[in-house]
Fold each of these.
Amino acid sequence: MSDGHALTFEALGLLARGLAGVDVEVLPLTKLPARAPVASPDAAPPPARAVLAPKRLLLPEGGDARLRPAMVAHAVAHLRHSVPARPARALKPMGIAVVSAIEDARVEHLLCRDFPGVRGWFVEALAPVPNASDLGFAALIARMDRLLMLPAWQDDNHWVNKAHRLFDETAATAGLEDYDAFRAIASILANDLGQMRVRFDPQHYAVPAPWRDDNSYLWDFGEAETPPDDAIALQQSGARPPPPSDASSDDGGPPPEGGAELELGRYSYPEWDRKQERLRPDWCTVIEKLPAWQGLSPMREQPAASNERLTPLALPRARHLDRTHRLRRQWEGDDVDLNAAIEVLVDRRLRLRPDPRLFMRPGKAPRATSVLVLLDLSESVNDAGQGGQTRSLLDIEKQAALLLAASSNSNARQGADRLAIHGFSSNTRDEVYYYRLLEFGKPLEAPSRAMIGAVRGRYSTRMGAALRHAAAHLRAEPAGQRAILLVTDGAPSDIDVHDPQYLIEDARMAVAEAREAGVRTACIAVDGAADAYVRRIFGWRNYCIADDARSLPVRLARMSARLAAAN
C-alpha cells in the first residue's frame, strides 16, 4: 500500500471522527482482525461493501474512490443514530432487507439535517435508475432510495410512491428520531411486497446504494455459527405460504412429484371499471382446477380430516307455500272446501250442529334449495387466529364447511336441499383460481372430506370474478331458491390493482348481476373492520360479521338456513 493510499484512509478516519465526535478507525477491508479466518487462494474475493463495527469502519480497497466520503458519512449516521445488534430472529429475510433500507434512509436524513453538506455526497453516489420494467426487489429498493433522497424525482410505481408517502408522513408526525415508527412502516412495505409476490433471493441480494454498508452493524443473528448471509437465506419470503415438507417449489407453484394441477377449464368474465363506469369485457380469466394438494398422497396424509366424526348442526329446512298441496277444513282460507260445505247442508237437514271449518288454503312444502358456499382461499387465511388461537382461519373454515355439508346431507335425503363447497384465490386478473371441493348432489364421503381438509390458502382475493363464476354454476341448478354464501377474512384485493375501491365496486356489481339472474348472495366476514365494505358489496341485510372466528360454524349454518328460507 502506498503512502498516498495510507494517507487517504487516514484522512477518512479524520472525517469520520469529525462527523461522529468519537474516534473511528477507518481501514481497508483486507486488513481483517487476526482472529478472522484467512480465505483460501481459490475463494471468491470479498464483496465491495463497507463493514461497520462500533469503532471501526472497513472500506473496500477497489472501486470508485469518490464513493468513500459517502461511505464514511453513512457509517457515521449509523454510529450516531442507530441502535446496533437488534435481534433479527423474528424477521423474515425480506423484512430484514426492507427494515435495513428504511433505517439507512432515516439515519441519512438525520445526518443531512445536522450536516447539510453531506447530502451532495449521497446524491452523487446514487445508483443508476433501474429499468422501468424491472419490478424485482433490488430495483424497487433502488427506486425507493432515489425518491427518498431526491423528493422532486418522479416515479410511476405504486409501491415506491407509497414508501415515499409513508416515510414523509412518519417524519412529520413522529419525527426522524422515532425508530419504532419507521420500523412499523417498513413492516407495512415488506408485507406489500409479499402480497405483490416479489421474489427475494437473500444469497444474491446486494444493497443497491453503493455507499451503504452490509447492515451487519444493525442486526444480531444469534449465537449460531452460521454467517449472517446464510442465516438470512435459511428463511423464505412471506410472499407465499410455506410449502409441505416433501413438495412445493420455491416460487409457490405446485409440487413437482405427482402434484401437477389438473385444469378443468378456462372461462372469461367481465370486470367493472368504477372510473369509466362500464364493464370491461373478457377482462378476467377464471381457471377451474383440482389443486395439487388434493392428490392421493395428501389424502392419505389427512386421516384426521377424512375420519373425523362430525356432529351435524341443527339445520332447519326451508319451506314455502305450495298451492298444489291444499289444506282442507280450515277456519279461514282463499277458497271453499266443497266437501265440507256439503256436509254442512246435510247436518242442517238432520238438525245437527254443522262444523264451521268450510275453507281451504295452500299448504307448505319443502323448498328446493341450492346453496353454494364459496370459501376465500387467499394467503391471509393461513394466519393464526387472534386471542391466542392456534388454529388458522382456514382450519376453522374447513371445519365449518364439513359441519354444514354433514347437516345438509341429512336434509338432502328428503330430496330438498343441495349444497356445494367451492373455493377461490387469485394471482392477477389472468389467473383467478377456482376449486370445486364438493359438488351439488354429491354425498360427503371420505374423498370429499380429505379434499376439503387438505386445501391450503395462497395468493389474493379477486372476489368479483369468483362470484360471477359461482353464479354461472348455480344457473344450472333446478328451479328454486339459489344462493351463494361467501366466507372471507378481508376486502377484495389483488396485486395488479392499487385502487382499494376498484375491486369492491366490481364485487358489488357481480352481486347485482347475480341478483338479476335469480341468485341471492350473502357474506360472512371474519373481520372486525369489515362493516363498510361488506355492506357496500352485499347490502344491509345480506351479511354478518364474525369477530371471533370460532363462531364461524354456527354463523355459517344460520346464514345458509336464512338464505334457503328467503322469499
Amino acid sequence: MLQRKVIAYMMLLTLVLSFMPWSEEEAAAQGAQTASKIDAMLVIDVSNSMDTSDKDKIGNEAMKMFIDMLSSTGDKVGIVAYTDKIEREKALLEIRSETDKEDLKHFIDQLNRGAYTDNAVGVKEAVKVLEQGADPAHEPMIVLLADGNNYLNKNGSRTQAESDQELSAAVAAAKQKGIPIYTIGLNADGQLNQNALADLSKQTNGKSFVTSSADDLPQILSEIFASHQKLKIVPVQSMTGNGSYQDVTVNVPNANVMEANISIMSSQPVDLKLYDPSGKEVAIPDDNVRLSRSKSYSLLKLLQPAQGDWKLQVKGAKKDKIDINLVFNYDLKLALDPIPSKTYKQGDKIKINAYLTSNGQKLQNDALYRNMNAVLHVKDLDTGNSVDLSLVNEGDRFTGEFEVKDKHEYELKVRAEEKSFYRETEPVKVSAKPATGAGASAQPGASEGEVNKPFPMWIVYSATGGIVLALAAAFLIAAWKKANRGFVGQMVIEVRDENTGEKSHPQYKKLNAFKGKCSLHQLLQLAPEFKETEKMVFIPDKNDRILLKNGSNGTIEKSGRAIDASRGLELKSGDRVTVPLTQVDKTIWIEYIV
C-alpha cells in the first residue's frame, strides 16, 4: 500500500514538473494571467479629538466610499480603530458579495470614540495583520486617517520614546514587505504634525494628504484608490442642483474597462437615471449596475460597461454643490520584451518593445493605443540621475532604443499612460561596467571539450532516488502528523442581539490549545444560552484549514446562504460564517484567521 502511494506521488511530481515554468520569462507570463487585487487595511484614529475635527464623521463615510470602489469580488479589507489601544478590529475579509461590503460599512458605523492617541498602536497592528493574512498575489496597502499627534495617558507606563520606537519598527517592516502607507491628516486645529505623517508615506512609497476640512476626505480616498491601482481620476462634471434632472455624459473609452466607478459627491441625496450608449434606460440597480449611497456620496458601479457614451441624469437639491468623478478599473498590464542581455559595452544600443496585455495575452484591441503615450524611464544607478526617452506608438506596441552612454549600471522601465490610467513594466537592470577579476570569464579555465562534455547521468539517478526517499519519508511524516494534528490560527467571534442590533466586541479565541477537535460551544465558554452550538464542531485540516461539521438541527450560513455542513465545510483564513440561533434571538459571527 505504501509503495503504491509513493509511486503515485512520483507520477504526480512528474506531472507537476512538466508544467512548471523554468525560465524567468515563462514564470512572469504565468503570473501575469491573474489581474492584481488589493489587500487593504483601513486604520482609523477614533480618539475624542475627532469629535471636533470630524464632528459629522465624514471620515467614516470616506472609508465606506473606498470600500464601495473596490472590485465586486476578490479584494480583501481589514479595519483597525485605535486610540492608545486597539478599540475594535476587523480581520482581513475577502469581498465575495455586496453583503460583505455592507458588513464592513456596518462595522465602521459602530465605531465609538475613546481617550488618548498612539499612532504606533494602529500602524503596528495593521502591518501585523497584513504580514499574517495578506495574499502574496495581491497588492497590500495601509490607509491611515489621523487628526493629530500622540496624546498618551500621563498616568500610564507608555512613554513617547517607546511609541516612536514601535512606530519606527512597524514602518520598517512595512517597507521591507512592500506595504505602502497612505496617510491622511485632518488638520482642523492647526496642530497636526504634517511632517511625521508625510515621513511614514515617503519611507513606504505611499502618499500623504493633509486637509483642514473633513469634507475633502471622500475626494482624497478616491485619489488613494486610483493611485494604488495606477488609475487616474477623470473629472466628469461639477454642477449646482436645481431640483430637476441634469444630463451628464460618461464616456467609456474601450472594451477593456472592467468596472466604471461614478462617484457623485453632494451634501444631500440625489436621484439618478442611466441610459446606455444605445439610448436604452438601464435600471438602477441592475445585474451589471450597483448603487451605494451614504450621507455624503452616491457611487454608481458599472460592471463591464459597453464602450461609448453613457448618459447619466442627476437630480439634486436646489443650490446643492455636486461633484462627479469617474475612475475606471482595467484588467491591463504593460509587458516588456526580454532584454537580450544583461551586460553591454559603452555605445551599444538596446531595442525596446513594450505592449499591453489582458489576462496574460497580448491586447488585440488596437483602439486603446490611440490616445496613449509612452516613455522609457532610464535611471543611472551610479549617479542617481534619471531621464525619460519618448517611445514611438506603433498602434499596437511602443518601440524605441536606448544607447548606453557610460560604463555604468542602469535601470530601465517603460511607462505608458492615457487620461484615465497608466501602467509600468517591472524594472530591468543592465550593466555596461567592464568585468573584472576571475569571475569575468563565464567558465574560467574550461576548454571547449569540457564545455561540451555530456551531463553525468549518475547525478540524475542519484537525484531521482533522493526524491523517492524524500517523498516516502514525507508520506510517513504526513500520516503521523494527521493522526496528531493540532489547530493553527484563531477564531474571531462576535455575537449580535437581533432585538437591539447591538454587536459584541470581537473575541479572539486561540485554537492551538485544542487537538483533534473543538466545539463552537467550547469557544463560547460553554455558556448555557449557546447550548445548541455544542454539536457544531471544528476539526483541523491540512494546509492550515479547518472543517466545520454541523451535527445539530441549527443552520450555518455563508455569504447570506444556508450551507449544508453536515459532512464538513472547509474554512480557510479569512472565511466567515454566521450561525443564527433558534433558542435565543442572537446571531453568532465567526471568522477564521491564521
Amino acid sequence: MNFTRWSARLPGTQRRTAAQTEHPVSPDLRGEGAPVPAARAEQLTDDAPPVPAVDELPVRDVLDRVPALVALVHGPEHRVAYVNDSYTAAFGVRPVGEPACEALPELDELGLLPLLDQVLRSAKSRTVKSRKTSNGRSYTFTCTPVDTSPKGHGGGVLIFATDVTDHAEAAERLRASERSQRETAVTLQRSLLPQELEEPDDLRIAATYQPGGTEAAVGGDWYDVITLGGGRTALVIGDVMGRGVRAAAVMGQLRTAVRAYARLDLPPHEVLQLLDGLATEIDANQIATCVYAVHDPNEGRLIYASAGHLPILVRDESGTVVRADEPTGPPLGTGGWLHASGSVPLGPGSTAVLYTDGLVERRDEDLDEGIASLERALSGATGTPQVVCDRLVRSLGVTADHDDDVAVLVLQHPARTGPDGDLFRNAALELLGGVEAAPRARAFASGVLTSWRFPADLQDLGVLAASELVANSLQHGTPPMRLRLRRTDRRLIIEVTDGDDHLPRRRRAEPADEAGRGIAIVATIASGWGSRRTPGGGKAVWCEFALK
C-alpha cells in the first residue's frame, strides 16, 4: 500500500516532511588562521538528527492509533482488507476478506454501500454527515478511493468515520429549543386570534390562519370581525413585521386596541390614526400593516382605510373582480402621517377578500403577479365563505411547509329572495321638522311595524323608541333628518340621522327637569343603542331590539 498517495486525503491529518539545514563552519575572526577549538568545530559541523519522513512511518501502527474509525475495503464487492482498533471498539471484530454487505452490516444500515460503489466508479471522495449508528453514536463518514495493489492496478475505498455525537446532540438540543419556541409562538398566536368569529346579520364570514412551515418562525398575522350595532360590521386584518413571540405579542395588543377603538364607532381612517400612535408606543422599531373596513347594509358599500396593507378584492354578482387600491397610507408605527378612508361597492351577491402577504408573495415572482393570481382564483371561486377561503388557499399553492404565515378573511353579502328576503326589510322617512314631524314619525313607525307583522308589544316599544329618537333630533339636531327602520332575521333596528355632529349621551335627569330622559328611555327599553358621526357631517343615533 502506498501511504503517500492517500494519506493526505485523511481528514485531520497532515503530511509533514523533514527539513534538513547545513551550518557551514566560519573561521574565527579574532585571529586570522587561528585554529577552531575541537569542541566548537564539532558543534558547528555536525548535522541535526535526521527526522523520519512520512513514507518511513509504519502505516498500520499509525492507523491503529488514530481515534477515528478507519476501514479499508477493496474490489467491486468491497471485501474488508482492514479495520483499525477504534472501529473494532465501536462495532466489534470484523472478519477480513468478507464482503462489506456481510462483514460491515452497520454500513448497510446507514445506506453507505451504494456510496462505496459510487466512490469506486468515480474515483472521487464522498462525505456523509452525522449518521446515527445502531450503537447510538453519530459519525461523519468520508469515503476516499485508494490503490490497494502493489502495482497500483487494484481499486479500494478507505472509510474514515469521525465521532460527532456531541455536535449532533447539541444540534438536536438547539432544534428542540427552536421547536419549543415555535410551538409557544404558534400557541400564543392562535390564542390571540378570535376563537369564533362574530356573525353579523347581513354578512356570511369565514377566515383561516395557517402558520409558516416548521423552518419558518411564526409571524404576527391577525384578523377580526366586530359587530358595531345598528346593522354595521367592522372587519380588520393586519400583519406585524417580524417573527416569533414578540411579533405575536404586539399583534395581540393591536388586535385588542382595534376592538376598543371600534366601539367608538369612528371612521376607518380615524381608527388607523389611533392605532398608529399606539404602535409607536408599543415598540418604536416595530411596524405593522392593517386594513380596517366597515360594512353598512343600508349603504351597500365597504368603507375602509389601509395602513400599507394589500388591497381588498371584491367580486360582484356577475363575477367581476375589483381591486380596492386607493387610498393606502403608510404602515402603523411610522407616526406623523394622516390616513384617509375610501369605499368599494359590496352589494347583495358580492364577495370580498382580505388577506396578508403570505398568500400572494413569492420569492420568484412580483407581488402584483401574486395579487393577479388571487384575482383569477377569486373570479372562479363559488360556494360558502369557508369553501371560497379554502379554494383560494389551495389555488395560491399554500402548503404545510409554506415559508410565511397566511391569514385570509372572506365575507359575502348574500342576495336574499323569497321568504328569506321577507326577513330583511328597510323603510325610511324624510323628516322636514316642525311640530308635525313627531306625529308623522310615530304614524310611519306604527304602520311599518304592523306590516312587518311584529307582535303588538314589540310594535309599541318600536314606536316609543322612534318617537324618542325623533324628538331628541328635533330638539338638539339640525336638518336634514331621516327616520330609518330596518329588520333582519335577528333584530329590529331604528335609526335617526340629522345634520348636527354633537353626539348625545345618556344622563340622569333630575325630578324637576323637563328634558333629558329620551336617551335614558331608549336605553332602558332597547337591547342596545349607540351613536356615531356620519361621513358627510352630522350624526346617526340608533337602537335595536332582539327578536326572540
